[in-house]
Amino acid sequence: MVFKRRGMDDTEADKLADKLLQVDRDQTGQVTCHLCQHFNPRRKTCGNFRSAGVGQEVGELAAMAQRCAGYQEARQ
Ligand code: SF4
Fold this sequence. Notes:
There is one protein chain. By secondary structure, the chain is mainly α. It has one domain. Helices cover 33% and strands 5% of the residues. It is built from three helices and two strands. The chain has helices spanning 2-5, 10-26, 49-52; strands at residues 39-40, 45-46. It has a two-stranded antiparallel sheet with strand order 1-2. A hairpin with a 4-residue loop joins β1 and β2 (45-46). 17% of the residues are buried.
């Protein structure tokens, strides 16, 4: 649901949900930008890019499972 609110279509949201389920199962501590309060889904930018160590425009990185020093869980 949160993915759709953040502008993803059904297929994209399903793929990301599957990926996150796998990550959770692996207990790696990885996240995606779509779960982070610093992510702007319309522009695909990071509002905390300096702490995260990435460029301001995250683009395709947004959907990749990663460990991120700048991550903060999005408010529901
Ligand atoms: S802080 Fe990290 S997880 Fe959050 S939007 Fe930026 S790069 Fe993505």
